[in-house]
Amino acid sequence: MISDLTHVTVLVEDADEAIEWYTDKLGFELRDDEAYEPGMRWVTVAPEGGDVEIALQQPTDEFGEAQAAEMRDRIGKATPTVLAVDDCRATVAELRDRGVEITLEPEEMPWGTHANIVDLYGNPYNLLESAE
After folding, report:
1. pTM for the full predicted model
2. Distance separating the N- and C-terminal Cα atoms of the chain
3. Distance between alpha carbon 74 and the CA centroid of its chain, in Å?
4. Which residue range forms the structural domain that includes residue 41?
5. Which ranges carry the VOC domain (predicted)?
């Protein structure tokens, strides 16, 4: 049966630009950056010490024109991924200082304090400080 979740794929317009944004703005570490076919790369980033990695997938025509076009159309239209934070308000303040777009200011909910951000392509993330 399924034993673990290892990667979440995020579609991006430019892998190099995305690496810079995720490492500089969110403070993630670059885990992998390898060419595995001409025009195709495997790029992953993650919070330092985190187990689950984000695969930054840049659609290229090597996927086939139709599939690449469909993938490009989905950039910025992902379902929000939840990122755990220790202090939601402090994290939002730090990310704002780094130029990250905040789409929902921190608010208290029964499950904790949460806020929303988007990456440079509009891919959404929810920051969650758990109530427990």
Report:
1. 0.87
2. 29
3. 14
4. 7-74
5. 4-130
